[in-house]
Amino acid sequence: MKKFEVFDPTTEAKEQALAFAPRPESLHNLRIGLVENTKFNSDRLLLKIAAILEGEYGAKSHIIRSKHSSSVPAHEEIISEFVANCDVVIAGIGD
Amino acid sequence: MSTKDLQSTRYEVTNGLEAIEFYYSKGWTDGLPVLPPTESTIRAMLDVAGLEPGDEIIFIEHRRVSVTAEKVAINSVMAGCRPVDMPIIVTALEAMGDSRWGYHGPATSTGGSAVFLLVNGPMARELGINCGDNLFGPGWRANATIGRAVRLVMRHVIGTLPGGLDRSTLGHGGKYTFCIAENEEESPWPPVHVERGFRPEQNTVTVFAALAPHQFYNQLSNSAEGVLTTACAHMRFSAGVGMQPQYVLVIAGEHMRVIAKDGWSKEDIKRFCFEHTQSSYEELKRINVKPGKITEEDETRMQPLVPSPEDFIVVAAGSRAGAFSAFIPGWGRKGMSESVTKEIRRPWSTLQRRSNR
To answer: What ipTM did this prediction achieve?
Structure first.
């Protein structure tokens, strides 16, 4: 029987190298950045996490900044501020 | 004619049924059978739209994904589209790539929105896009397949997979396809694209991140105010309450005639609905839509359902018979996603006749 060709409908990923930021061995004396996504209670949860990291893991300080909405990435001002003033950043609060 | 080689991986099959089962085995389907895309059917799609396989239709920033014409064409064939449908699909995707629509939120959210497509202009009639009977139901190839093609592109090309990057808690039937036209011939009002600054003879597609449609009936009133009072009662506490998204209000034949008889324009409809769908903060807090304790001033402080009267998108469509109309709540709030209207370009108009044969 004669064969025929059909095609892949998906994005066929090309190989690419991804570089993760190096992970700190300890949080001692490090400055925490908190990305708040505007969802109800996300600020409270992040601040509790920061308190634990400072109280139990020796983190030095924290700042919290809010995105424009939960469905967009952190805007440039937040990223610049965190790059300048933070050593580690916590994001990713869902529903 | 497209001349560049297709870049997608090819697979050999012996017949159509085997191909359908092959696509099932790969997970390349929305659950319904797909049409096997072959080189000639893919090329026909590209040629009508005047595109080369590698042309980038949109780039989805959040996913770092480039959506190429070739992949759109493949998925459009799979959805059952005709080549003449391709420019609508391409334009809908362009609109979804607009930052005002904001792909990531509506595509990913647990809120579970679909992509509602409204086609305006003469092309809707030329291509047989239903604007009448059984408006949101089955029976029309264009409605069934154009929306499906967009959905398959989201799924296969952009990775919007249920349980993966589509986290819908419930979703709804419109996520298979959700495409209609406006009944421009019988409507007493300017169509949506003319309201938005296009000429009547231009063709447009509007994309709207949409929850499920809600039907309401009013068989008692013979006035615009009566019909719209019912509409507002249903809308006031509907899926978007408290969030202030946009809403689509679909007014079908009988209601359309009743409202028009009273001389109401679309602006009148929007203004009335804006005024009559507001809720007090006291009520919104009491039913747990808004957080916080109820204060004295909450009883008189009102929140509109949508940010402004213009955020009711009024569409004349649906059957001539029956005292029913519908509203479609938008997803999220307007600042997170809003409807976007784009013109469907027709570099393919000379080719259209050929592919229509």
So the answer is: 0.92
CA B290 from centroid of its chain's CA atoms: 28
Long-range contact set of residues B279-288: C-beta below 8 Å, sequence gap at least 24: B279/B236, B279/B237, B279/B241, B279/B303, B279/B305, B284/B241, B284/B242, B287/B237
Determine, for residues A6 and B105 on separate chains, whether the beta-carbon distance falls below 8 Å.
no
Interface test with B, best of A4, A6, A67, A71 (most B CBs within 10 A): A6
d(CA B211, nearest CA chain A) in Å? 17
Q: What is the pTM of this model?
A: 0.93
Has residue B349 got a pLDDT over 60?
A: no
Task: Look at residue B357 in the predicted model and tell me its pLDDT.
Answer: 31
pLDDT digits (tens, 9 = 90+) for A22-66: 899 999 999 999 999 988 889 999 999 999 999 999 999 999 999
Indicate yes or no: CB of B13 within 8 angstroms of CB of A4. Answer: yes
Interface of B with A in 280-319 (CB under 8 A): 291
- In angstroms, the Cα distances linking B85 to B10, B119, B245 are 24, 11, 29
Task: Give the span between the Cα atoms of B83 and B69, in whole angstroms.
Answer: 13
Q: Who among A6, A11, A69 is closest to B65 (CB)?
A: A11
